[in-house]
Design goal:
Length: 133
């Protein structure tokens, strides 16, 4: 499946989530600035610490032509992805309602993703992919 994982965070732990999901699905992950634009992706997963201005600008551009489906893994409190979800829906893409919220702490360079956290994130992504088939 054509899929992208995009990191909108400077926290090492969030990058660990990106890497775990991308490796499990055999796709690439990217962070800002993007190496290449989204084009006809079947699924794009945004892994982000919110609020994030670059994510706020990117999500309204996620039309069906760029990505048929969008999912969010958010470092923030429950419900903090609402603004991004609403913007993606307004752009016309299908937004996966199953948002994964994680807590990464305030210090960006500290924090390592535990094996349990990696497994939970990978399972979350696999459940989304299975539901799309």
């Amino acid at each position: 499946m054509k899929m992208r994982v995009i990191c909108y965070s400077k926290k090492k732990k969030m990058e660990g989530f990106c890497e775990a999901i991308a490796n499990a699905q055999g796709c690439k992950w990217d962070k800002l600035p993007l190496a290449y634009p989204c084009d006809k992706e079947r699924l794009t997963i945004f892994v982000a610490s919110v609020p994030h201005d670059d994510l706020r600008r990117m999500v309204p551009e996620m039309t069906k032509e760029r990505s048929a489906n969008v999912a969010f893994l958010i470092d923030g409190p429950e419900g903090s992805a609402k603004e991004y979800i609403d913007a993606a829906k307004a752009a016309g893409t299908n937004v996966i309602d199953n948002v994964l919220y994680v807590k990464c702490g305030k210090i960006p360079f500290l924090g390592k993703v535990t094996d349990e956290e990696k497994a939970a994130a990978v399972k979350w992504a696999e459940d989304i992919i299975a539901a799309m088939k």
